[in-house]
């Protein structure tokens, strides 16, 4: 029998989380249930995306702008609400903080101290939805620290080490869920015939170098001179190729699987760049580091960055160690290459 025809042993996501934790403690069960709920949200979003083109009113803009000042896609709102609804029934998550909501959404009955918070970008890269290119959801799980009496969720303004779990769902030709709870990075493919995410790869380790650099070179003249010098370097030297989809999750997944570097630097207009820390760059930084890569703002490790506000932006240089270090060598202008 050809190998590809042999079904895997069908390790589901919830079973894998328990295996990872090597425990059936209440906390382990909670985390396993939370990951299962995230997987359910992913299935519901994947189903909608596959049908959106055939559903009247599912595509296009709502006419509103979100807290980011970006025009809101109907898919953004749908996906945002999916995460809220799957966690409303869960009794596990107390707060949801999303790119689409100015303030966190509270599920009051779930809110004893120490309960979990979901930080997420429900559909990242939603401008790709209407042209049927890949989009993604990005998530991180934290625990509430102390009181949050004013509803400002100040306790979330901490560094990335407080993330209990992080990952993303990539809605592409297949729907792939990638996650870490600090014990390596693992990928699951959604098997539509089973309606389950099935383990595909465990302990993914990204190459320490890859040929891909992923950046929006349309911003070239907005960048600092050091970044421009880096781009000139990869233009001039053999062995580099540009890949950029305009949707973060797909660009990052390529880097995770093949190596290379994704960069969204600061610019004259946006010195902190465009990407948000708590539900974009911090979760992805945890994934990069767990897979043997690096994640820097250009000045510091993203995982060490302490935000001053919920929707804090940071510049982002994410990817293989050697490729991130090459970008940093230009930023620090060490000269040696
Ligand atoms: P630009 C999508 O809007 C997004 O948040 C990320 O998915 C993506 O990496 C980035 O912005 C693209 O931004 O400025 O290159 O269009």
UniProtKB/TrEMBL annotation:
Pathway: Carbohydrate biosynthesis; Calvin cycle. Substrate binds at residues 124-127, 216, 244, 274. Residues 12-202 form the Fructose-1-6-bisphosphatase class I N-terminal domain. GO terms for cellular component: cytosol. The keyword Cytoplasm applies. One of its GO terms (biological process) is sucrose biosynthetic process. Mg(2+) 1 binds at residues 99, 121, 123. Keywords: Calvin cycle, Carbohydrate metabolism, Cytoplasm, Hydrolase, Magnesium, Metal-binding. It is found in: Cytoplasm. CDD domains: FBPase (cd00354). Binds 2 magnesium ions per subunit. Its EC number is 3.1.3.11. Its cofactor is Mg(2+). It is an enzyme of class 3 (hydrolase). GO terms for molecular function: fructose 1,6-bisphosphate 1-phosphatase activity; magnesium ion binding. It catalyses: beta-D-fructose 1,6-bisphosphate + H2O = beta-D-fructose 6-phosphate + phosphate. Residues 206-330 form the Fructose-1-6-bisphosphatase class 1 C-terminal domain. Mg(2+) 2 binds at residues 121, 124, 280. SUPFAM superfamilies: Carbohydrate phosphatase. NCBIfam families: PRK09293.1-1. Homotetramer. This is Fructose-1,6-bisphosphatase class 1. It comes from Cyanobacterium stanieri (strain ATCC 29140 / PCC 7202).
């Amino acid at each position: 029998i050809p190998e590809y025809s042999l079904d895997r042993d069908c390790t589901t996501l919830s079973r894998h989380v328990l295996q990872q934790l090597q425990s059936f403690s209440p906390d382990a069960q909670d985390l396993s249930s939370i990951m299962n709920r995230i997987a359910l949200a992913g299935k519901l979003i994947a189903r909608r995306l596959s049908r959106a083109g055939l559903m009247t009113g599912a595509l296009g803009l709502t006419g509103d702008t979100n807290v980011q000042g970006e025009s809101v896609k109907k898919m953004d709102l749908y996906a945002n609400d999916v995460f809220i609804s799957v966690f409303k029934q869960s009794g596990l998550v107390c707060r949801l903080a999303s790119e689409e909501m100015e303030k966190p959404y509270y599920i009051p009955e779930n809110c004893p101290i120490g309960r979990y918070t979901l930080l997420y970008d429900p559909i990242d890269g939603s401008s790709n939805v209407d042209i049927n290119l890949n989009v993604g959801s990005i998530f991180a799980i934290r625990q509430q620290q102390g009181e949050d009496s004013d509803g400002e969720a100040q306790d979330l303004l901490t560094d990335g080490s407080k993330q209990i779990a992080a990952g993303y769902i990539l809605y592409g030709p297949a729907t792939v869920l990638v996650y870490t709870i600090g014990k390596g990075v693992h990928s699951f493919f959604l098997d539509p015939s089973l309606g389950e995410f099935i383990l595909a790869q465990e302990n993914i380790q990204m190459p320490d170098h890859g040929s891909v650099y992923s950046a929006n070179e349309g911003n070239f003249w907005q960048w600092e001179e050091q970044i421009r010098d880096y781009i000139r370097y990869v233009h001039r030297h053999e062995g580099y190729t540009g890949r950029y989809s305009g949707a973060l999750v797909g660009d990052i997944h390529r880097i995770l699987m093949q190596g290379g570097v994704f960069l969204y630097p600061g610019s004259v207009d946006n010195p902190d760049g465009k990407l948000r820390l708590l539900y974009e760059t911090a979760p992805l930084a945890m994934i990069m580091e767990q897979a043997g890569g690096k994640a820097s703002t250009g000045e510091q490790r993203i995982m060490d960055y302490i935000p001053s506000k919920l929707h804090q932006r940071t510049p982002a240089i994410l990817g293989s160690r050697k490729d991130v270090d090459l970008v940093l060598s230009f930023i620090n202008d060490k000269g040696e290459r």
